Amino acid sequence: MSKEQQIDHTEQENDVKVYELGFHFVPTIAEDDVPVQFSHLKSMIEKRGGEFISEDFPKMIPLSYEISKTVKALKKRYNNAYFGWVKFTLAADQIGDLEKEVKAFEPILRYLVISTVKESTLVEPKEDRKLKEDSEGVVNEAQLDKKLEELAV
User: How far apart are CA 9 and CA 6, in angstroms?
Assistant: First the structure.
């Protein structure tokens, strides 16, 4: 392998990419302990040189289906979990080790790491988008009257 090919290969491995880690924590974590566990999860990213872009603190949600997890030869089933996510940049050659550590992290019920873009990919509910569009535009009296008549019916 030539020196140029070697350098290109090394640059690709050290290439910084944007990732998003979505996760469920087991619901048996005490509510006061959730910030501690979330902080520990984020420290796994930081120690590998990751930089945070955005995040959503874990919140208790009902699961769409039951998820089971085996811990110390005991299978437990869960119908709710703490769901959160974090978006970050990280060298591509570090993501495999991060995933191994996240998988072994005891409070994790389920997780997913995806490659994404730096820009926000959150989609507002349709009603909010319509309201925002209407509030940014100029109010037309005829349209307002028509809308009021529709609502009165």
Answer: 5
Output DSSP code: residue 139.
P
User: For 47-121, where are the alpha helices, taking DSSP H only?
Assistant: 95-104
Total residues belonging to the chain:
153
Instruction: Tell me the whole-structure pTM to 2 decimals.
Output: 0.69
Both structure tokens of 30: 């005490």
Instruction: Return the closest-CA partner of residue 103 out of 46, 21, 27, 32.
Output: 21
Residues 104 and 108: their CA atoms lie apart, in Å, by: 8
State how far the Cα of 17 lies from the Cα of 82, in Å rounded to an integer: 26
Number of alpha helices (DSSP H) and beta strands (DSSP E) in the chain: 5, 4
Give residue 152's pLDDT.
74
